[in-house]
C-alpha cells in the first residue's frame, strides 16, 4: 500500500447546521456563513450541508436554500449537499434546483446524494407521501438526474431548465457497503459517513475500489471520508470541548435528541456503561486533541484509508472554538501542495 501524505489530501467541511442550546436557527445560519467565509481563507476545498428533518438539534432541513446562502457569501469555496436525500425528492425538482444554483454560482456547486430519509420513518412518510417506497428507486433516480443534466436531454419531453447541459458533480454518499457497490458501478466519487457510522468504512472502501468502473466523469476511484474533529490548543481543552459532542450523541442513542449542549467537566453520571460504549462506537473516527495530537492521528488515518479527501465535522458549543478547531486542522493538512479544488468532472456527460 502506498502511503498518502496528509499534506497531499484535500480537506473540506461538513456542516450539520447544529442548533446550539440557547440559540435559534437564525444564529446557526449566521454562524455557518461565518464559518464558510473563514474556512475559505484557510484553504478548504468544499463546504457541504446535510439534510435532516424533525430534529430540534439540526437546522439543515432545506440544504438547497442553505447552499445558495453560503455560496452567495463566499467566492471560491465549492458548496454542496452532503447530502440531499434523493428518495425525499423528485429527480426533476433536484435537477432544477441544483441547476439554478449552478447557474448562479458556476463551477462551485456539488451534488452529494444519499438514500437514507434523514429523519424518522413517520417524518419520511410525511415528506414522501405516495413516494414512500422510493428508496428502492435510488439507482434509477440518480440515472434520471444525470439524464436531466445531459445536453442530450434537449429533445426530451421533460427537461430541467436550468440544469440541462451543466456540469454538476454528483457524489454518492454512504454509511454501508450497499452504497459502495452503487458508486463503483456508476463510476462516481464516493463519500463515506464515518463520522457516525464507522463500522463499515474499510469494507466499503475496498468494495468501491475493487468494483470501480471508469465513467465519462471519473477515470479512477475518488474517496472522501467524513470524521469528527475537536481540536484545541491543549489536549485537555479539546477533551473538555468534546463533551458537547458526546452529550449530543448520547441524546441520539437515548432517542432524546437535544440542541448541542455546553461542555461539562466529566461525563461520569451522565451515561451508563452500555450507553458510553455505544457513543464511543459511533464516534470511533473522532480526532480529539491539540494540533500535535490530531496531526499524528489524522496522518495514520489518511495512511490507512488512502483517502483523496478528508471531510471534517466539528460540533463544538462555542462558535469561536469551532472556527479555531477548523483552523488547527488546516494548519495540519495544509502543509504542502494541495489537491486541486475540483479534481473531478473535467467535462460534462
From TrEMBL:
Record has Membrane as a keyword: no
Keywords, comma-separated and alphabetical: Plasmid
Family to which the UniProt record says this protein belongs: To bacterial alkanal monooxygenase alpha and beta chains.
One Pfam short name: Bac_luciferase
Gene3D superfamilies, per the entry: Luciferase-like domain
InterPro entries: Bact_Lucif_Oxidored, CmoO-like, Luciferase-like_dom, Luciferase-like_sf
Name the UniProt record assigns to this protein: LLM class flavin-dependent oxidoreductase
Residue ranges occupied by any Luciferase-like domain in the UniProt entry: 22-251
Amino acid at each position: 500500500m502506498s502511503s498518502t501524505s496528509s499534506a497531499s489530501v484535500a480537506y473540506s467541511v461538513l456542516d450539520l447546521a447544529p442548533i446550539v442550546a440557547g440559540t435559534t436557527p437564525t444564529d446557526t445560519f449566521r454562524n455557518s456563513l461565518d464559518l464558510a467565509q473563514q474556512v475559505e481563507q484557510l484553504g478548504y476545498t468544499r463546504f457541504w450541508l446535510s439534510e435532516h428533518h424533525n430534529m430540534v438539534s439540526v437546522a439543515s432541513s432545506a440544504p438547497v436554500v442553505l447552499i445558495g446562502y453560503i455560496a452567495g457569501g463566499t467566492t471560491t469555496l465549492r458548496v454542496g449537499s452532503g447530502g440531499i436525500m434523493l428518495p425525499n425528492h423528485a429527480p426533476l425538482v433536484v435537477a432544477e434546483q441544483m441547476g439554478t444554483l449552478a447557474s448562479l454560482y458556476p463551477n462551485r456547486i456539488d451534488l452529494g446524494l444519499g438514500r437514507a430519509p434523514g429523519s424518522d420513518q413517520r417524518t419520511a412518510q410525511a415528506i414522501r407521501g405516495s413516494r414512500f417506497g422510493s428508496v428502492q428507486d435510488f439507482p434509477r433516480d440518480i440515472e434520471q438526474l444525470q439524464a436531466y443534466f445531459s445536453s442530450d436531454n434537449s429533445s426530451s419531453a421533460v427537461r430541467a431548465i436550468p440544469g440541462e447541459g451543466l456540469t454538476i458533480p454528483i457524489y454518492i454518499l454512504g454509511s454501508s457497503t450497499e452504497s459502495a457497490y452503487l458508486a463503483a458501478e456508476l463510476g462516481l466519487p464516493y463519500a463515506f459517513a464515518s463520522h457516525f457510522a464507522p463500522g463499515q468504512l474499510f469494507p466499503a472502501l475496498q468494495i468501491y475500489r475493487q468494483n470501480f468502473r471508469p465513467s465519462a466523469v471519473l477515470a479512477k476511484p475518488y474517496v472522501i471520508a467524513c470524521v469528527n474533529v475537536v481540536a484545541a490548543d491543549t489536549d485537555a481543552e479539546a477533551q473538555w470541548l468534546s463533551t458537547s459532542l458526546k452529550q449530543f450523541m448520547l441524546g441520539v442513542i437515548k432517542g432524546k435528541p437535544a440542541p448541542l449542549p455546553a461542555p461539562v467537566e466529566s461525563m461520569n453520571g451522565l451515561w451508563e456503561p452500555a450507553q458510553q460504549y455505544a457513543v464511543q462506537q459511533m464516534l470511533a473516527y473522532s480526532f480529539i486533541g491539540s494540533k500535535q495530537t490530531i496531526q499524528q492521528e489524522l496522518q495514520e488515518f489518511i495512511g490507512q484509508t488512502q483517502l483523496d479527501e478528508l471531510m471534517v465535522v466539528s460540533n463544538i458549543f462555542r462558535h469561536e472554538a469551532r472556527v479555531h478547531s477548523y483552523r488547527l486542522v488546516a494548519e495540519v493538512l495544509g502543509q504542502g501542495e494541495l489537491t486541486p479544488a475540483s479534481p473531478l468532472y473535467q467535462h460534462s456527460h
